[in-house]
Amino acid sequence: MRLTIVLLLFLSAAPPALPQEKYKDVTATAEERAADLVSRMTLEEKVSQMQNSAPAIPRLDIPAYDWWNEALHGVARAGLATVFPQAIGLAATWDKNLEHTIADTISTEARAKYNDAIAHGNHSRYYGLTFWSPNINIFRDPRWGRGQETYGEDPFLTAQMAIQFIKGMQGDDPHYYKTIATSKHYAVHSGPELLRHGFNVQVTEDELSNTYLYAFRQTVEQAHVDSFMCVYNAVDGVPGCANKFLLQQTLRDAWQFKGYVVSDCDAVDDIYTGHHYTKTLAEAAALAVKAGTDLDCGRSYNQLTTAVQKGLLTEDDINRSVIRLFTARFQLGMFDPPENVPFSKLGLDVVQSPEHQGTSLQAAREAIVLLKNDQNFLPLEKTPRRIAVIGPAADDPDAMLGNYNGIPSHIETPLTGIEKQFGSRAKVEFALGSSYVAGWSALVPQNVLTPEAQTAVHGLRAEYYANEDFTGSVALSRTEPRVFFSWETLDPAILKAVSPDRFAIRWTGYLHPKASGEYQLGAIRPECHSCGRVDAARLYIDGQLLTNDAKQAGEQMYSKTTAIQLVAGKTYQIRVEYTQHGGGGGLQLVWTPPASAALEEAINLVKSADVAIACVGLNSRLEGEESPLKIPGFAGGDRTDIRLPEPQRNLLDALFKTGKPVVVVLVNGSALAIPEAQENARAILETWYGGQEAGTALAETLAGKNNPSGRLPVTFFASVDQLPPFTDYSMKNRTYRFFSGKPIYPFGYGLSYSRFVYSNAKLEPGSENTRLHAKVQNKSSRDGDEVVEVYLTLHDGTNPELRAFDRFHLKAGESRNVEFTLDNSDLKGRIVSIGQPSVLKLQR
């Protein structure tokens, strides 16, 4: 009897059967599925999912996932991809439709890469679907090195371009996101780079709302972006990733944001170590979660289990964040049958497709801004007999790519583009002229390399081996124009010959220096993002080992050069050997010629030419994200001087003194002070970091096949003397909206080979909105694009604000009636201007 009673008690105390696995039910909502899945996790499992590198949980069929992926202007750091102009160049197109097409193209390639990665069990960083783009910070000061990643200095232009980018990335499927975009860096963030981990920003309520937060709000309310990234810096004394005013009261309560927030990398750690806002890292992690930071890029959230145990936050706080994260993964279709997800069949054949490359070329064309065209010197209607292409940016493939970039199958530099466009009818010759900055290296050009001692063919003989010791038969042998190798280009011939995991390359030939003196000669191995490859490079001159460089590739470009005396007219035997194992790899053969000799060569070349194309500017190793770089004019990725670096100023001065016509081509990611060029150049073209097709677009523009129509998304100031201190975030005397001085070129400026005339402008008031009508006519014999800009200004002409714009194509002689709708509340006490920036003014 006793035994029976005990048995009955035992049966009554048994736990109920596990509830149905709702998270596997594809008919349930993403939020319901996420909540059910999270309810089945332990605290430790939940915490593990709140870090960007989230491990698998096999018992719940959760695969590993890394939330860190990049797609600023093409899928980045994930092998071959179509590379578009840098974001600042895309802003210069003022083309919202094109921006949407570009983002849709990027997301297509992203899905293809993800599908292939999953099929091969690859769950590593950069192959996911959550992308940390776009960067919509206001480019308030041209000294900021990361301004190239933004859409410029105007909140309205930034918002409009960001909206289209996000819509293109996230797609319009009613059930699934194509990818997820991220509005970053939230908020009030634009340098200095060296101070960002502990810097505190204080601005007025008006500046915060109407300048620094405007675009972020629009991406929530108009684009429904699903992710935000919080900043390193503090705002009003509170670190961005622990700032309840920004993350809860503004983002979620006021704007009704429904997605998730990710920290900038190690920004949670900065709450403790940079800002000293808490006494422990556990407190910092707890504050971040309670404020609304759901995901940590880094390892700081390892402290969350301890934080819960200490009562610094509750498990419900953890649940809230993890549910948001898994809601996003369900919305991406990561747990659903592939046949349910409309993007699951995209394959790698779409990557770098002809259509995608064509879109990149169109973007490069539209991004070009014609800043000066003295007496219509351009286009070069009659092909010159001899064209001198000069400058450090003339044949620098890396400078076409900017930062946060992918690797395309090919890169057209200004030199290669001009050679293809004009080479059959003109003699095109190249001279470096100067380095970007004193002492910097450049690629050894093909015009001093030959595969044989006596030949008209330029380049070196390249031999590929399917091992690391150069044994056995050669897998591939061919002549290459120079040593500029990247496995990520996925060259079909190389793919067929050797494996990316283990190979060797030997380049052999002859070096013919054109000037005598001391050179720095060596190799660069480009950065390796989150890879474990080990590679080595050796350089021999006349059989003697000059450099021997072997180390594991890191996150930065690694360069090793050695001084060597070279004599003009002498021929040197050269051999470059590169070995690699672990995957991928790259190598560039570089040198630094004697500065005086490089300048003299350029001068002599220009003297014998009919026209000089001087390609000058910057590259993303000079301006970019936080770096240890400290050279004159630059500090930690930012600039301290907005002029061209001194060697390039000297180069331009020497070219102008030859008396030959000089076209200045700017390659850069931020505004440059170029008063000398404005005064002496026959024409000036701004090309930005123009992407893989930059050289083609430039050459077409020089030839008149492309009619330039870009507009500046930033003000080109005359010098830093016109600017407030870099650390001052007040908008007083900043950007075109509040600047009281005279710039070299204003925001919104850009010339054309066509002439556009505005007429019949009128305002049509309504109860809530006012309609602006105008007629635009192309009064020239050349087809072209026009960008119509609409501004509101105070009656005294100050404080202009862009409020509408459109870009369209007009054939020669064609006219179009344009219409814009303006909010009446914006028009009170304002004058409406239409044109560039004020061809016609109207008063309501």
Number of helices: 22
Q: Name the beta content range.
A: 15-25%
Tally of strands: 36
| Principal-axis shape | globular
Helix content: 25-40%
Q: Low-confidence parts lasting 5 or more residues at pLDDT below 50?
A: 1-18
Q: Provide mean pLDDT, rounded.
A: 94
End-to-end Cα distance, whole Å, is: 97 Å
Which structural class matches the secondary elements? Answer: alpha+beta
Radius of gyration: 29 Å
What do these coordinates show?
By secondary structure, this protein is of the alpha+beta class. 26% of the residues lie in helices and 24% in strands. The chain is built from 22 helices and 36 strands. The strands form nine sheets. Strands 13, 14, 15, 17, 19, 20 and 22 form a seven-stranded antiparallel sheet that branches. A six-stranded mixed sheet has the order 9-29-28-24-10-11, with helices on both faces. Strands 12, 16, 18, 21 and 23 form a five-stranded antiparallel sheet that branches. Strand 26 and strand 27 form a beta hairpin. Helix 4 packs across helix 14, helix 5 (96-119) runs parallel beside helix 6 and helix 17 packs parallel to helix 18 (646-657). The longest helix is centred in the N-terminal third of the chain and has 24 residues, at 96-119. The protein is globular and about 80 Å long. The N and C termini lie far apart (97 Å). The model is unreliable at 1-18 (pLDDT under 50).
